[in-house]
Amino acid sequence: MTRWNPTSYNPDDFGNRRHIGPSPSEMEEMLKVVGAGSLDQLIEQTVPGSIRQDTRLDWPALSEREMLSLMREVAGENRVMTSLIGQGYYGTVTPPAIQRNIFENPAWYTAYTPYQPEIAQGRLEALLNYQTMVADLTGLPVANASLLDEATAAAEAMAMAQRVAKSKAKAFFVSDNLHPQTISVIETRAEPLGIEILRGKPEDCDPSKVFGAIFQYPGTFGHIRDLSADCEALGKAGAVAIVATDLLALCLLKEPGAMGADICVGSAQRFGVPMGYGGPHAAFMSCRDEMKRAMPGRIVGVSIDAAGRPAYRLALQTREQHIRREKATSNVCTAQALLAVMASFYAVFHGPVGLRAIAQRVHLNAVTLANALRAAGAEVETDAFFDTFTVRVGVGQAGILAAAEQRGINLRRVGRDRVGISVDETTDEGVIARVLDAFGITDPAEPATEPAIPQDLLRESDYLTHQVFHMNRAESEMMRYMRRLSDRDLALDRAMIPLGSCTMKLNAAAEMMPLTWPEFAMLHPFAPQAQAAGYHRVFKDLSDKLCTITGYDAFSLQPNSGAQGEYAGLLTIAAYHKANGEDRDICLIPTSAHGTNPASAQMCGMKVVVVKSAPNGDIDLEDFADKAAKAGDRLAAVMITYPSTHGVFEDTVREVCRITHEHGGQVYIDGANMNALVGLVKPGEIGGDVSHLNLHKTFAIPHGGGGPGMGPIGVKAHLAPYLPADPREGAGAVSAAPWGSASILLISWAYIRMMGGEGLTQATRVAILNANYIASRLAGAYPILFMGNRGRVAHECIIDTRVFAEHGVTVDDIAKRLIDNGFHAPTMSWPVAGTLMVEPTESETKAEIDRFITAMLAIRDEITEVAEGRIDAEASPLRHAPHTVEDLVAEWDRPYSREQGCFPPGAFRVDKYWPPVGRVDNAYGDRNLICTCPPLEAYAEAAE
After folding, report:
1. How far apart are CA 803 and CA 813, in angstroms?
2. CB burial class (10 A; 0-12, 13-18, 19+) of residue 701?
3. DSSP-assigned letter for residue 498
4. Three-state SS for 200?
């Protein structure tokens, strides 16, 4: 007889059943290994009671179905309009094949930054395509693999120009034809660096007075002019010529490189990436070859692997902020890799002929509209243009803008008497008719056949000549190309990525789905705010929840990366001190702080003073107190990461905050490790004045192969008046859009709402359990650094592999051997050289964690074989790792078996991941730098 047995299992409990990996029974098994009687006891042993919060996070959790229903309601509060505002943001068509196979595909959006090139060949090829596309279209030989947005890229270009200019001038010229938000961000960056900004018309620039100048081409109001004479004059004066430009326009217009430009910047947004109310979108930068070592951001290069086969890698990494710290070219950490990949595939999808056809259609539609307005008596100011022009309408401005809005069209308000119109890829006859109707013109427009581009500004050179841009564009071929590239990668959809400090956790499908809904994807960031009521409802609730989580009083959602958040937080502190009439410029940074901190402080004009760490990984309190006292009334801030980058909760954190405040400084707590704090500790209650939160870590925005990210900052009430300004309102902005990469804030909001307060707290607790489980299981085989005062680690642990160096085994050998086991390596040699920092996150299951432990123990056995002299390090599987399919089928003359080499413990057999290349030769790649798609002959030569 069947019994009715009620179950307590709730299949709709997202937090406990979908996001958190270990089941309750598995947690009990893990706690036994760890040696704790309960999860509560483990937390008591790990997190100092003196800093624990005394209030619970208590909002209810929503099921996936309930959250999506709420999201539909919120989306309905946004009004989707046809925005012809321009200003760097345009309607675009995302090819469905790219939307489905890239943007909505976890193989692409869950990948990590390609620091391990052997398991990132697919995304590296896509990014190399992006660099080639940018280099070709701008006419400059070297491009990076994306920056955060156009405005911040322009600010980076200014800083780069100061580094490379031969001129000793202290001023920088900013043309009035730049987009307003770009000017705002440049002015923000210039002020703490002591750079004087000179503004004026392009022809007003005096090259003898500046180290560089930036022009917009086409200008923000549509004007195009040949910049050759300007670039030549700047060059003769030893100054750097920068051009902010538009990739689609360059399909028709003379390229900046042909005009003598030194650096180009811009946004790849209109190459198939939705506006998303401001982002994320990949910015680009290209430059002359001799400037490449000064260029910020990541650069993909071509090298060879151990067998001499071509292989991609990140080149010139010695420029990066984690290595050079305050001497880095930039603090850029997150790029916009996923969006750069989308833009590159847009170029592959359409090819040069398709892009030219789109550009011609956009241009002729703009000319059609301008001609129709002129024919009806309107005063069109712009004669030569690509897609944008302005119309002088006098006192009729408000009426025309309102009439256009009634017809579903947003136009740009320019001054008090003009209207700006930017035509884009989505503009058709119906849109043109509605615009004309708003001007009171009912006659149909006559399609234009002649361009409004002067003959000497028409592009003459070819672009996108590499074979990848000339593929058969049948969708079947495109789909297979995308699949081939993704198959070369190891992303979170295949295996655990146990990276310390980077928190590669589950990015749930339900959180990602709304991003492609038109109500969120198609909004222009400068559209009237009333049209984005749904977005602002999300911003308000997200900010409120983050305040509750962190103990801060206010949030700015503008910073569009973690590094940008650091920069914004320090600028906020600097503005506060300045408002109080204090001249403070010293920033104390412990060696245990996050790697981008020193570079961010330097960008804010602060002098970095490094504080020692004690042997147990804590901040050396004596050294800290001494340096704080020496700084005295010059102490601006201290930057600490909590729990520390060493992976421990320091008992002394309140004392560090007290000492800082005693000397008048402000405490910046880096939010990189917030995954160990949510629900347990509020940084704003333990002495923090400001923190940035990596939403792409703790709050579930996917890493995307190197971005997108978001780094909003929370502050105590006294700092709130100094948060980043709206980029439309003058200096003070840190990003191009008022709410940064607004569309991906939806992911974190959905995560917070589905987890609920208790789910978020449980996630933190399980993250700490998973890390301590790994530390306990591996402690007998590997030394574990910095176990904390109670013998516990926080949410990550550091495995010390330096002890194996005497046997010839390096941290690289262990990292590459993990690839054979089907794992991405933990964070290598940071924060301690020669170590591995492991962070399992709460969303990894016990089975996957055990598989990783099995792999690490097997690697330890192989190290023992080397140490005991049974095999030489050079001949061992450790040194030959990773093993490819070609190794499997080739002649085998190694002293270990094929089985051991290719199918080590922990590796899947049926679903084994095979890296497409062997160990990549980094030195070769830097000696023979190739940063655009090489011709086929180069591959043949490498193979020989």
Report:
1. 13
2. buried
3. -
4. strand
Tokens of 461: 């050179």
Can you tell me the distance from the alpha carbon of 286 to that of 263, in angstroms, rounded to the nearest whole number? Answer: 6
Q: Computed from CA positions of residues 12, 13, 14, 20, in that sequence, does the dihedral angle turn out positive or negative? A: negative
Closest of 559, 586, 57 to residue 280, by C-alpha:
559
> Tokens in use for 313?
């890698």
Query: Residue 648: which residues within 8 A CB-CB, separation 6 or more?
Result: 616, 617, 618, 786, 787, 788, 789, 793, 794
* pLDDT score of 305 more than 80: yes
Which run of H or of E encompasses 836?
A: strand 835-838
Judge contact between 740 and 712, C-beta under 8 A. yes
The alpha-carbon radius of gyration of the chain (Å, integer) is: 28
H/E run at residue 96 = helix 96-98
Structure tokens at 558: 């503008």
Per-residue pLDDT tens over the stretch 151-163: 999 999 999 999 9
CA dihedral 318, 324, 325, 327 (to 10 degrees): -130
Q: How far apart are CA 571 and CA 565, in angstroms?
A: 10
Q: Strand, coil or helix: what is 171?
A: strand
The structure tokens listed for 265 are 């910047």
| Lowest mean pLDDT across 93-107, 165-179, 374-388, 645-659 | 645-659
Inter-residue contact 557 to 740 (CB < 8 Å): yes
Structure tokens at 135: 């280099």
Predicted confidence band of residue 942 (pLDDT cuts 50, 70, 90)? very low
Among residues 367, 72, 342, 17, the alpha carbon closest in space to that of 224 is found at 367
Q: Check residue 932 and give its pLDDT.
A: 75
The per-residue pLDDT for 722 is 97
Average confidence score pLDDT of the chain: 94
> Could you say which DSSP state residue 455 is in?
G
Q: Which two tokens stand for residue 467?
A: 């074979």
Residue with tokens 């495995």: 799
d(CA 763, CA 677): 10
Q: Is the dihedral of CA 926, 931, 936, 937 positive or negative?
A: negative
Q: What is the pLDDT of residue 940?
A: 45
pLDDT the model gives residue 944:
44
H helix or E strand, kind and range, residue 797: strand 797-800
Residue 675, classified by CB atoms within 10 Å of its CB into exposed (0-12), middle (13-18) or buried (19+), is buried
Instruction: Write b or e for each residue in 415-443: b if 16 or more Cβ atoms lie within 10 A of its Cβ, otherwise e.
Output: eeebbbbbbbbebeeebbbbbbebbebee
pLDDT digits (tens, 9 = 90+) for 500-532: 988 999 999 999 999 999 999 999 999 999 999
φ, ψ at 890 (rounded to 5°) = -80, 170
- Tokens 């969006």 -> residue: 339
pLDDT digits (tens, 9 = 90+) for 86-142: 999 999 999 999 999 999 999 999 999 999 999 999 999 999 999 999 999 999 999
Whole-number Å distance between alpha carbons of 748 and 863: 42
Can you tell me the distance from the alpha carbon of 641 to that of 672, in angstroms, rounded to the nearest whole number? 7
594 has pLDDT over 90: no
CA distances in angstroms from 844 to 98, 349, 506, 693, 847, listed in the order given: 29, 36, 8, 22, 8
Q: Give the closest residue to 541 by CA, choosing from 70, 882, 918, 177.
A: 70
Residue 651: closest CA among 54, 53, 47, 55:
47
Max Cα separation, the chain? 96
Q: Which domains does the chain have, with CATH numbers?
A: 80-493 (3.40.640.10), 540-754 (3.40.640.10), 757-927 (3.90.1150.10)
- Measured over the CA atoms of residue 470, residue 472, residue 476 and residue 477, the dihedral's sign is negative
Give yes or no for a contact between 606 and 570, defined as CB atoms under 8 angstroms apart: yes
d(CA 661, CA 648) in angstroms, rounded, equals 23
Share in percent of the chain as helix, strand, coil (round to 5) = 45, 15, 40
- Token couple for 923: 């030195």
Note whether 628 and 635 are within 8 A (CB): yes
